[in-house]
Write a structure and sequence with these properties.
The protein is of the alpha/beta class and 412 residues long. The chain has two domains: 4-39 and 303-411, Alpha-Beta Complex (Aspartate Aminotransferase, domain 1); 47-301, Aspartate Aminotransferase, domain 2 (3-Layer(aba) Sandwich). 39% of the residues lie in helices and 16% in strands. The chain has helices at residues 12-16, 44-57, 67-87, 101-112, 134-143, 160-167, 189-198, 218-221, 246-251, 286-302, 304-323, 350-359, 372-378, 394-411; strands at 25-26, 29-30, 32-33, 95-98, 121-125, 146-150, 173-177, 202-206, 225-229, 240-244, 262-265, 270-272, 328-331, 340-345, 362-363, 365-367, 383-387. A seven-stranded mixed β-sheet has the order 4-10-9-8-7-5-6, with helices on both faces. A hairpin with a 4-residue loop joins strand 11 and strand 12 (270-272). Helix 4 (101-112) runs parallel beside helix 5, helix 11 (304-323) runs parallel beside helix 14 and helix 12 (350-359) crosses helix 14 (394-411). The protein starts with 11 loop residues before the first helix and ends with a helix. Residues 1-7 have low confidence and may be disordered.
């Protein structure tokens, strides 16, 4: 007899029981939530952690001698270790809690303000979210460093020949997302990191869109900085992380001054605390950090291989179903892609599609998805974007297809 536990079966209906929100109605119809690339839903296992924190041990950390403070500190530091293990960071103090991806990127960009010199080149990819563009533009204004763009192709992939050419400029820093939130493209970050290191450039990877689908190994990738947000991976909003190699965390100056991040303060001179506290000024999102750890545990219990395999099924199914709709065009057709579909329907504005299908209980995102350069590349003002998570189903995709057909009838 086969050992039944070896064949993990992926039971989406059982998983959906963990998400109370998936059972609500919107405009009288059962909710279909296809806006996962903007934020994911939260399972009971994480919600209960949050309730438990505020019901039983809410206290400030690292300061109090009292029992509650000790418990809160322990849980918070345990969460840091959970996250460390998940990303396979060498040290727990290489995980800095932040308010999210945007905060993490700004922290690094601010730090490089004291490292970059006038005329230094830094490379950004054409596929970036605004939060991985604007902080670097601000940095360039301050340092007079030069921002160059790795172009993209019609398929929605990075042009790796152009990337090779740009490396000849000896950039100091390269920043690329792991997965594009607008198109779903999985970028070849391992190669990008390797080639960048060969010319002495440090690399920051924006993992906000990857972490719901993939379990990155920062040591294997040998990446300098990896950033993400908890709310895209079943955790709460307002918390995220910066992973950085110890070398960089020692080298970069603190981002914000305040309590928690100091070792000694006099009016003559202040010395900074050791890692990770140097970068965690003020009272952090304690409950959020603990819930982030719980979200990581939750996703690992389901298993990232199971998640990826199932979401890939959803992606293939939806791509086939949507492509069959007349006049529908999908943007981003890389073979390396996660469960995000950006599309437009001929002669219909994406916003109108989004509004009509919302009336039918279906949540998608419309607009530029904080990636105006990608929209400009395709010469469009925006797209409709359906993004799937492991708790979505093929039946829900059928409802999307039906709703789109209704919208087309109404709008044309
Ligand atoms: C969501 C997202 C961000 C921004 O994350 P915040 O949580 O809003 O800071 C940045 N980059 C990518 C690729 C994203 O998907």
């Amino acid at each position: 007899m086969k050992n039944a536990t070896q064949n993990t079966t992926f039971d989406v209906h059982k998983i959906r029981e963990d998400f109370p929100i998936l059972h609500r109605k919107v405009n009288g119809k059962p909710l279909v939530y296809f806006d996962n690339a903007a934020t994911s839903q939260t399972p009971l296992q994480v919600i209960e952690k949050i309730t438990n924190y505020y019901s039983t041990y809410n206290a400030n950390i690292h300061r109090g001698v009292h029992q509650l403070s000790q418990e809160a500190t322990d849980r918070y530091e345990e969460a840091r270790q959970t996250i460390q293990q998940h990303f396979n960071a060498k040290h727990a103090h290489e995980i800095i809690f932040t308010s999210g991806t945007t905060h993490s990127i700004n922290l690094v960009a601010h730090g490089f303000g004291s490292i970059l010199k006038k005329g230094d080149v830094i490379l950004v990819s054409a596929l970036e979210h605004h939060s991985n563009i604007v902080p670097w533009q601000m940095l360039c204004e301050k340092t007079e460093a030069i921002l160059k763009v790795i172009p993209m192709t019609e398929l929605g992939e990075l042009d790796m020949n152009q990337f090779d050419a740009l490396l000849k400029l000896n950039p100091k820093l390269v920043f690329v997302n792991h997965i594009s939130n607008a198109l779903g493209t999985i970028n070849p970050i391992k190669i990008i990191i390797e080639k960048s290191h060969n010319v002495g450039a440090a690399v920051l990877i924006d993992g906000a869109q990857a972490c719901p689908h993939i379990k990155p190994d920062v040591q294997e990738l040998d990446v300098d900085f990896y950033v993400t947000s908890a709310h895209k991976m079943c955790g709460p909003t307002g918390v995220g992380m910066l992973y950085a190699k110890e070398y960089w965390l020692e080298k970069l100056p603190p981002y914000q001054g305040g309590g928690e991040m100091i070792s000694e303060v006099t009016f003559e001179k202040t010395t900074y605390a050791g890692l990770p506290h140097k970068f965690e000024a003020g009272t952090p999102n304690i409950c959020g950090g603990i819930a982030f750890g719980a979200a990581v545990d939750y996703m690992n219990a389901i298993g990232f291989e199971n998640i990826a395999a199932y979401e890939n099924e959803l992606l293939e199914y939806a791509t086939a179903q949507l492509s069959a709709i007349e006049g529908l065009k999908i943007y981003g057709s890389s073979k390396q892609k996660t469960s995000v579909i950006s599309f437009n329907i001929e002669n219909i504005h994406a916003y109108d599609i989004g509004t009509i299908i919302d009336k039918l209980g279906i949540a998608i995102r419309t607009g530029q998805h904080c990636t105006q350069p990608i929209m400009d590349f395709y010469g469009i003002s925006g797209t409709a974007r359906a993004s799937f998570a492991f708790y979505n189903t093929k039946q829900e995709i059928d409802r999307l297809v039906e709703a789109l057909k209704k919208a087309i009838l109404m709008l044309s």
